[in-house]
Amino acid sequence: MKIALTGAAGGLGTVIRREYLRRGLDLRSSARKPLEPLGTGEDLCTADLRDKKSIDALLNGVEVLIHMAGTSVERPLDEIIENNLRGLVSIYEGARRQNVKRIIFASSNHTIGMYLAHEPAKLQLDCAPRPDGFYGLSKVWGESIARMYWDKHGIESVCVRIGSCLARPSEFRHLSTWLSHEDLFRLLDCSMNTPNIGYQNVWGVSNNTRSYWDNTQAAVLNYQPRDNAEDWAAEILAKENPLDPVARSFQGGSFVTIDYTAPEARPNAGKTKA
Ligand code: 15L
Fold this sequence. Notes:
- This protein has one domain: NAD(P)-binding Rossmann-like Domain (Rossmann fold).
- It has nine helices and nine strands.
- It has helices at about 10-25, 50-60, 75-100, 135-155, 175, 180-195, 235, 245-250, 255, and strands at about 5, 25-30, 45, 65, 100-110, 155-160, 165, 180, 200-205.
- It has a seven-stranded parallel beta sheet, sandwiched between helices. A two-stranded parallel ribbon has the order 7-8.
- It is globular.
- The site of D-galactaro-1,5-lactone has 9 residues, from loops.
């Protein structure tokens, strides 16, 4: 199976690229700027998401695309529109032209970042979106694009709402949001290999005791995470929580604090519910 990877120069892209090359998978890695080969004969591609030709070259002969490219943090709206809205449409249009069967889309927990850290129950995958900024909003758009291209054009997608994908959890919020690299690979394996997936969302989270999220509605993937951030709890709880009070209150953490209007400064101060 030929796999293409966008965003191969980014943090997670680099982790995926190294592992797939180690496994000997048939991978084509792409980034906006030329990548240094990690081995002889590596299939590399320089892709500008605004350029049809380079997208066609990237997706030619590809069965599954892992789409990690795009802006991955809160940024000015114009940048987000260019990279995450227009860029994603270019990718899906390229997938149509090149008959790509499935896209694994790096969505984010920031699609739902305005839910409280202390919600009474774990969030299900079909909860209403509550993005915590323009970045989160762009991932809601991304999931809707994925849905539309399945419904209208038959391109399958798995939208992975990634939590905090890190080698190790290091702060209090990660006890809920951590996704280990090993579990990321378990999740990518299921996302690539489960037949007839159509359109599917999944929380990209490890088996954390304090997880905010419940993957029951993604049971078809049979994703079985093995790591648990709780193994680092003693170390983490001994340190100060680096987040400010607003960031601590919401699932999106520090993204919520960016350009946040305090309740007392809101137009309907005293009348709104959380
Ligand atoms: C994300 O979506 C970001 O891309 C990443 O940098 C982290 O901030 C992560 O979410 C998180 O919420 O920890």
